[in-house]
Amino acid sequence: MDRNKIDAECAIGYKRAMSSDRVLIANRGEIALRIMDACRDLGVDYVAVYTAEDEDSLHARIPLSESGGKKAYRISSYRDPNEIFMVADQAGCTAIHPGYGFFSENFRFARRAALRSRPVTFIGPRWEVIRDLGSKINTKRLAKSLGIPVIPGSDAPIYSEIEAEALAKELFFIQREQGIQKPSILVKASAGGGGMGIEEVNQLDAFRRVYRRIQNYAKRQFGDEGVLIEQCLTDYQHLEVQLLCSSHGEVVHFGTRNCTIQSTGRQKRVEIAPGFDPAVCVYSFDAPAILESITAYSVRLARHAGYDSIGTWEWVVTRDGQPFLLEVNTRIQVENGISARIARISGKSGYPNLIREQIRLAFGEHMGFSQEDVSFEGTSIELRIVAEDTKRGFRPWCGTITRFDLPEDEFATVYSHVPRDRPYKIPTEYDPNLALAIIWGDDTNKAKDLARRFISETRIEGEGGITTNLDYLHDRIEDVLVF
Amino acid sequence: MLDRGKRLKEFADRVQYLMDVKGGADWGSLNELLDEIRFIQQSIYDLTEAEVFREIERIEERITFLEIRAADLLTPAEIVNIVRSPQRFTLTDILENVYDSYTELGGMGECNVDPAVLTARATITRRVKNRLYRHQVMVIGHEKGRGEEYRNGGCAKPWGNAKALRYMKVAETEGIPIHFYIFTPGSYPTEDYPGAAQQIARNIYAMARLKVPMVSFISEGGSGGAEAVGLSDMRIMSSRGYYSVISPEGAAAIEGKIREGEKVPRELLEHCAAQLHMTAEDNLRLGTIDRVVTEPPLGARREDYSFFHRLRYEMIRATDEVVLKTKSFRAFRAYALKAQALEKDVPEDFEVLVNWDLTELEVERLLELRSQKYRAMGRGGYVEGKTGGIPVLGKAKELASSGFYELKYGLLRPHQRNVQKVIEDVTGESSVFLRKVTGPVRAAYEFVFPAPEHPVPKRPMEGGEERSVFREEWETYVSPLANEDGTVTCPNAQKYGCLDLWIPDLYGEFSGVCPTCGHHFPLEYHWYLEHLFDKGSVREFNHHIHSANPLAFEGFDARLEKDIKRTGRRSSMITCDARVDGIKLVVSMLFGDFRNGTVGSAEGEKFVRACDRARTTRRPLLAYIHTTGGIRIHEGTLGVTQMPKCTLAVREYIESGGLYIVVYDNNSYAGPVASFLGCSPYQFAIRSSRIGFAGPRVIRETTGQDVPPDYHSAKNALRRGHIQGIWDRREFRKNLLDALMTMGGSNLYYK
Amino acid sequence: MTDINLNDLLRTYRSHPYEDIPVSTPHTGIVTLKAHEGQEVKGPGGPWLNRPGTLLYLLERERNVKKMSAPCGGTVAAVRQDLDSTFVEAGTTVLSIRHHLGKEEIIDRILTHVLFIFPAPQRARYYFPPEVAASIEKAQGKDVTIKSGDESVIMSLMKRDTFLSYDGPSGVIYKVYFSPGAIVEEKAPLLGICPHDKLEYVRKVVQRIRTEWEE
Predict the structure, then answer these.
(1) Dihedral sign for Cα atoms in the order B222, B223, B227, B228
(2) B716 and B635, same structural domain?
(3) What would the pLDDT profile of A321-336 be if each residue is shown by its tens digit?
(4) How many Cβ atoms are within 10 Å of B656's Cβ, its own excluded?
(5) A128 found inside a domain
(6) Which of B436, B456, B459 to substitute to test the interface with A, most A CBs within 10 Å?
(7) Strands B111-112, B117-128: parallel, antiparallel or unpaired by DSSP?
(8) How many angstroms separate the CA atoms of A278 and A301, rounded?
């Protein structure tokens, strides 16, 4: 595989400094394996955890350490912080890498790691940052104060009907002003989330009724009748800005990504970097300028918040080229690989590994390079291969995989926890993600062709006929970057 | 022959009675004596008449000798035995012998709402100058029965007390005096509707201002059960009765830390009975009763007609005195002096006829006198230190002269409606109305999501175990419990799958609430003082009233001292002025760290003064019960009388238009719940708290039945109608404000 | 649902009237053993099963020492002495309890042959739909009727809830074999249904076991 193409030499210099550290990887699946790789590159020792359900996963089956010590510990749940800290203490870990999901954006976990009597380095931002940027409302308020565009609407829960109605009126007015054909706003419970307690309003006349309904719902469900109101966007692209920051105030961005292609459950399926490509698509706005502005805005917010780890700034860009900041993901993301894949750092060969950079910076290292040193080359596409039925609401498939052959190409990097030498039963406790494939091409069209080729060469078989999203991915590659 | 058989039977009863009194046959070789009697009973036809006669003479002499000796050295525990003897007189005996005729109400015998409580309409007759006069009275009391199981030994069930209340109201309607007879070891500890504690509270609340003369007679006065029919204008007690805060067995179990099921040693029992000061003499000295009716040295039994004769005289005299006091003090004095002269022997005739009907004005005086009487109870039970002491909660602001408030409210009140506007302008308190109810919600929101300030990019400092890890983060009060790096398991973990909680998270950010299931872990009372009220608005008053050891209960001084040292406080009650979103209120708070939140004379006095302060300053009154374990047993009946005393004060407050809200937390049991707390129309509980009359162990020991683990839970209390709602600790402030705004109608002071 | 040879079944259970129940750590921690080989232990007791069983071992994690007590009565066996005072992973078997089956347990086991069993289609977590849970709670031991096509159980798999329709003869939910929210293995029984016309028969079977089984 082409992992040797990753800039390996930059790691060597840090080996000595971190040789006494040990990282506990508090996650599962491919991200756990990728963190292991990064640790190995840095010369940092690591320990993994797994649950009984994951016993057959590759991340649970890592060999003993050189000294014969235990490297993987069975715990009751990935979601129980007590298990993580117990193992961290037992295994003498000095740091915890949360991966994504689970504890990655849990400020209480990070706070506990920092404040407990035996502190452990949380590989991620300071807990205060996670808390402050973890709140969408708070982020919105902060962004507004810095002149960063956010979706028009309330930046604090509204409790009074008069206040709410005034705002709704204003939002409809703005949209009409902008020439939007079917203006609409969203009314949602501020304490809610995950699509609960959200309603769309298309007419001002209907607002009061919906407002009352949501308010009652919120009071009943969450005990807090606060309601948020914002403009409803319908036609947009979902973009991301990848940032890397150190605890010494250094901020470097790694360009943009486009993650518009998502499952019905708002899970990303195909991601591409960079975020727009005017060479293959026609935009009604100056795409490079938009990419530049959202990157600059993201850096501004990161600097202001004292951001000190890897992070992703999520944006939406409307058809007419209006960017709005959605939220900040204070963690490493699944699709970090495509940003890294198109990046080049001057003076270093190959492309960087952002997980490795994240770990290194968490230990207090300096960045070692600046924005001027970062350049971009080509296009990278990530495919998320999942055992699901895309025609039936992305319903997960569970069963046993008997054949798992992914093409080994120079242009593709594959991360998977699914073993290939034996049948593998998909655990029912977790999402049925099988693999990530990161494809790189000189330009967007080439990358799209390679991705399609990759899919057609992939062979996955399972007992009783497996259902995967390969066909869906193949079809959707054509839709990337286009409104 | 027949006569001799009867006499022998009587001897056997007397010996049996001695055994009962002395708590066994060890004393005075009573067993041998009983054997001798039985022998003669069996062989009465084998012996000659002279022999039998001689034996009878000898035995009688022996019994009489023993009886005199027994009476000479009567210990408090033996008095308890007298009271509990099946040969002691019961209420039915009194009804038959003291009253002329009676009709039982609310059931007969076993066909009854509660056979342990007897209510009857009765007539009592006095002779004045050879003419007979009949008085109508309502008789309410406990019937211990003659060993019938259904009588439950005089343990009133809640519905029994409800029946008593019903006929008190009937008496009030008819305007006839009530004679209460207390023969109870305690109330039956069930929470079934209406609930032991709640019903007793209702009864006391009603009696506090019942508009008829009431006289109570105590033979066996066991704590809360006694109070349910005990509040009266004149309390008399039989000389061999007991009146106590708790049964000596109960006290011994607590004091000796006796494990469940183990037998209490006799010495400990004797010791506790003596320490509790439960005899008639003790109670007269403590001022918890007004007069003693003399019984024979070993107590009156069922057929002691001379005692009944005396009791009739005493009940009439007591009622006369109560009535006369309301009419004219001079008449009462003249009457009382004459009566005193006749104390030794009961006269056959009364000098005068006193009409027991009261005019409206006299009723008012009656209630006023009752109030004074109860307010004076327990005055000697606490220490009033210097007012200049340093209060812990901040500078004590002296209460502005009540004249100001009289002017502000008293004068304006009659024309309130017309001058509403004026009041609002004058007081400036009207701003309360302009502020939205959502105020605290917003405040809470700001608290959770503080607008981020320019953070200093630095790694977090090392967490030490010594200081609070959160103090810097949140400037609000954080429980010191949070300063420990460790985890705890939620008691509902099995049921709801709650993960172990990190202690700093739990007691810091989560306010002691399990985020998974909402279980409330106990928090210290300071937390509430800081989170419930507006910042800096808490001003303590009456800090100088200290708990004491009025009965010189052995070993209690040291324990009191220990709690004082540990808590820095001198009673289990904190009374303070405070504000909630600008609304001024008076707060009384019982907290568990000091003697488990028990109520004694000091606490009672502080509560009464808080009621009065709320009344004069015209503010809502909040009783927040962090924990209460009941009445402080070490103060004996001085503690028990705090029940009627506090209820009386709070009723006067409520009737003058005040809003009284009770909020229970953690554990609230027994006396206080069964009186001045349970009488509130608005009672709420903090989630995960327990409210009840008696704890599970006491229930097991008295009823022999086990109760489910959630028997006393707030949820069940709500289901039974004992409380009106359950509040989340984190929303205590918001809920309290809501309650103040919704329940505080326009007739409330603060509006 | 078939007629069964009760005598055979009873004989089988009589020849081996116990079950070995492994006791495993629910999570990681340091173990301190408190029970010894051959010790007789008691399961949870009291009318509400609120009194915990005999203490078997302590498990300390993050300064929280938990008392692990016996889930059922029986004799302690196969104690892993080597684990005393050491760190263990989650799901480590510390000892096992040889549990003598009581009368009610025998009845439960034999009933799985008598009742119509609605099994778990997948290894997953199972819950009752709120309405079913409410009616079961309300019934308090009385009969809750179920018929084919009723949504009887929620299967929670990969964060998704699927309503399972009951498929079988209509009857009374006689026995619930799972505790809500716990993982149930594939094909393990979820519900035991007794058709109305068979109730009498089932009661007879129960009665017979009651009289014939000696503890």
Answers:
(1) negative
(2) yes
(3) 999 999 999 999 999 9
(4) 13
(5) no
(6) B459
(7) unpaired
(8) 27
CA dihedral A401, A405, A410, A411 (to 10 degrees): -60
A227 plus A354 within the same structural domain: no
**Nearest CA to CA, how far is A225 from chain C (Å)?**
25
Inter-axis angle of helices A207-222 and A161-177, to 10 degrees? 130
Q: Judge if C59 and C141 occupy the same domain.
A: no
Residues B574 and B587 in one domain: yes
**B contacts of C181 (beta carbons < 8 Å):** 497
Enclosing domain of residue A279? 236-479
Query: Within this chain, do residues A194 and A214 fall inside the same structural domain, yes or no?
Result: yes
**Is B447 touching A (CB cutoff 8 A)?**
no
* Band of pLDDT at residue A123, cut at 50, 70 and 90: very high
- Specify whether the CB–CB gap between B61 and B11 falls below 8 A: no
Which residues partner with B621 through β-bridges? Answer: B586, B660
Q: What is the span of the domain harbouring residue B66? A: 2-73
Integer Cα distance of A54 and A49 in angstroms: 10
- Report the C-alpha gap between B669 and B629 in whole angstroms: 5
- Do residue A179 and residue A84 come from a single domain? no
* Partner chains of C (3+ C-beta pairs under 8 Å): A, B
Distance from CA of A48 to the nearest CA of C (A): 13
Q: Which of B488, B706, B708 sits opposite C64 (nearest CB)?
A: B488
> Measured between CA atoms, how close is C102 to chain A, in angstroms?
31
Give yes or no: residues C29 and C41 share one domain: yes
Contacts 24+ apart (CB under 8 A), B233-236: B233/B322, B233/B325, B233/B366, B233/B369, B233/B370, B233/B373, B234/B290, B234/B291, B234/B318, B234/B319, B234/B321, B234/B322, B235/B288, B235/B289, B235/B290, B235/B291, B236/B289, B236/B290, B236/B291, B236/B292, B236/B293, B236/B314, B236/B315, B236/B318
pLDDT, tens digit, for every residue of A468-482? 999 999 999 999 988
Q: State the residue range of the domain holding C85.
A: 18-100
The total of other beta-carbon atoms located within 10 Å of residue B621's CB is 24
pLDDT of B146-170, one tens digit each? 888 899 889 999 999 999 999 999 9
* Chains B & C: contacts with CB separation below 8 Å: 24
CB atoms within 10 A of CB B634: 29
**A134 is a domain residue:** no
By Cβ distance, the residue of B436, B457, B505 closest to A249 is B457
* Residues in chain B, overall count: 751
What does the radius of gyration of chain A's CA atoms come to, in whole angstroms? 23
Same domain, C94 and C120: no
Residue C115 in contact with residue C31, Cβ under 8 Å?
no
Whether residue A135 lies within 8 A of chain B, CB to CB, comes out as yes
Residue B624 CB contacts under 8 Å (≥ 6 apart), including other chains: B528, B532, B587, B588, B589, B590, B663, B665
Task: Answer yes or no: do C134 and C146 share one domain.
Answer: yes
What is the DSSP pairing of strand A95-97 with strand A22-25? parallel
The complex's ipTM? 0.90
Cβ separation C91–A52 shorter than 8 A: yes
Q: Which one of C79, C100, C121 terminates a domain?
A: C100
8 Å CB contact between C99 and C21: yes
Find the closest chain C residue to B487 by CA distance.
C64
Do B132 and B42 have their domain in common?
Answer: no
The dihedral sign for the CA sequence A413, A419, A422, A425: negative
Alpha carbon distance, N-terminus to C-terminus of chain A? 35
Is residue B47 a contact partner of residue B55, using CB atoms and an 8 Å limit? yes
H-only helix segments in B497-600: 503-504, 525-532, 556-567
Could you report the per-residue pLDDT of B444-501, keeping only the tens digit for each? 334 434 433 433 333 333 333 333 333 334 457 888 899 899 999 999 998 888 999 9
* Residues of A carrying an active site annotation: 331
Q: Degrees (nearest 5) of the Cα angle B427, B433, B434?
A: 105
Measured distance CA(A311)–CA(A200) in Å, rounded: 31
